[in-house]
Amino acid sequence: MKIKEDFILRKVADSYVVVPVNNMSLDFNGIINLNETGAFLFKLMQSGIDREELISKMLDEYEVTPQKAEEDIDLFIEKVKGADILE
Q1: Model's pTM, two decimal places?
Q2: Cα–Cα distance measured from residue 25 to residue 61, given in angstroms and rounded to the nearest whole number
Q3: With 90 as the cut, is the pLDDT of residue 78 above it?
Q4: Where are the chain's structural domains?
């Protein structure tokens, strides 16, 4: 899975936002707000990564159970797909 190159992550105050750039800014209206964990996953997905690698990285970074990591990552992937920002 890889995030389309036309989306960038920015930190604004204590929040993270994903905004469209280039031609995508004409087709995509709005921004996506992310928490710290969402921003962590987004950054990993910018370079391309599979689900199993995401789970492994999340377990290394956060104190969560494997089941919780899988559930959170699956939910995040669904939302990213729904926003049509995956290649």
Answers
A1: 0.86
A2: 32
A3: yes
A4: 7-82
